[in-house]
Amino acid sequence: MKLLYNTSTDAAFNLALEEYALTRMEDDILMLWRNANAVIIGKNQNAMEEIDVDFLREHDIQLIRRQSGGGAVFHDLGNINYTLIQQMGADDFSNYAKFTKPVCDFLATLGLLAEYQGRNDILLDGMKISGNAQAAKNGRFMHHGTLLYNVDFGALAGVLRPRDVKISSKGVKSVRSRVTNIASHLKSPMDTEAFVQQLYDFFLNHMEAAEPYALTESDVAGVRQLVADKYGTWEWNFGGSPAYNFERVVKFPFGIVELRMTVQGGVIREAHIHGDFFGMQDVAGLEDILKGVRHDREAVRRALADVPLDSIISGMTVEDLAGMV
Questions:
Q1: The model's pTM
Q2: Mind giving me the DSSP string for 75-142?
Q3: CA–CA separation, 263 vs 261, rounded Å?
Q4: In this structure, are residues 295 and 268 in contact, taking their beta carbons and an 8 Å threshold?
Q5: pLDDT tens-digit profile of 283-317?
Q6: pLDDT-based confidence at 229, cuts 50/70/90?
Q7: Is residue 257 helix, strand or coil?
């Protein structure tokens, strides 16, 4: 088994590396890695429903869709990720107990009694310290999980809090759990880097035939291509959301504006605008302009750049309407 400590903290690169290892590498591989501030959503989730887009933009937080299912999670440098990829055995998929045991065994060496519970979690003193997910492709199997070591829970609460907006979709919603940081349960302080190194050493000494591995230039080139083609694109991260209905109502000084949209493939298919506002031109023309535009603030700004919006909704600016999406 190849043991890799991936030092990249770019979420798009790291999620692309997982797919690269799953689909293009032949060896079994165990990776440790961390992301700078990022929200990672499950492959079946609606990005717009799970996150506060305004908070995301204001705090320069990436959003990346992963290839496995499950819920949305916030990553920062206080969160350690582990990924095991191997040929799939008959009892591997959905066998979370099997693949979380090595992590629990490691935590036991630090005097912590952690245990696998529920659908896919590791708990410590009844609180969640790890969420796990799995994926399989062409006979290869991937199990990956988080380890909440010293995470900023304030940022987590902010970014995963829905906006004042109603969205109805067939996507999978995240389930919020009581969480805790591993660091707060240790008898002696340990910084995050030291914890990662101890975890690496444990895997190296306890996983069968484990040997250190470093990415080759060919590996890095392949991963970067996946970022360019998939993980770094709006089409995958936002456009990959299931179809949903979007509704937002805002009270402006010039009146109440209600925006209702049907979105499919991340693109506005239907738009309807109502309210007690005034305007010289019929709002139907504005609704038609929005059709076919990405459900994305910048895309809406571009679509409305030359539209005399004030003549349709008196007092409204492009920024006002773009802010509603």
A1: 0.80
A2: E-TTEEEEEEEEEPPTTTTT-HHHHHHHHHHHHHHTT--EEEETTTEEEETTEEEEEEEEEEETTEEE
A3: 6
A4: yes
A5: 889 999 999 999 988 999 999 999 998 888 889 99
A6: very high
A7: strand
DSSP state letter for 172: P
Mean pLDDT check: name the lowest of 90-94, 106-110, 142-146: 90-94
Rounded distance between C-alpha atoms, residue 310 and residue 255, angstroms: 13
**Residues β-bridged to residue 123:** 115, 128
322 near 294, Cβ under 8 Å? no
Report d(CA 228, CA 231) in Å as an integer: 7
Could you give the CA distance from residue 275 to residue 297 in angstroms, rounded to a whole number?
21
- Distance in angstroms (rounded) separating the CA atoms of residues 286 and 245: 18
DSSP-based three-state secondary structure for 3:
strand
Q: Which residues pair with 41 in a beta bridge?
A: 65
Q: How far apart are CA 293 and CA 215, in angstroms?
A: 39
Distance between CA atoms of residues 44 and 191, nearest Å: 35
Judged against a pLDDT cut of 50, whether residue 175 lies above it is answered with: no
Task: Fill in the DSSP letter of residue 294.
Answer: B
CB contact at 8 A, 39 and 6: no
Is 265 in a helix, a strand, or coil?
coil
Query: Which residues lie below 8 Å from residue 106, measured CB to CB, with a gap of 6+?
Result: 198, 199, 202, 203
Cβ-proximal residues to 241 (8 Å cutoff; 6+ apart), any chain: 45, 46, 47, 48, 49, 169, 171, 263, 266
Amino acid at 66: R
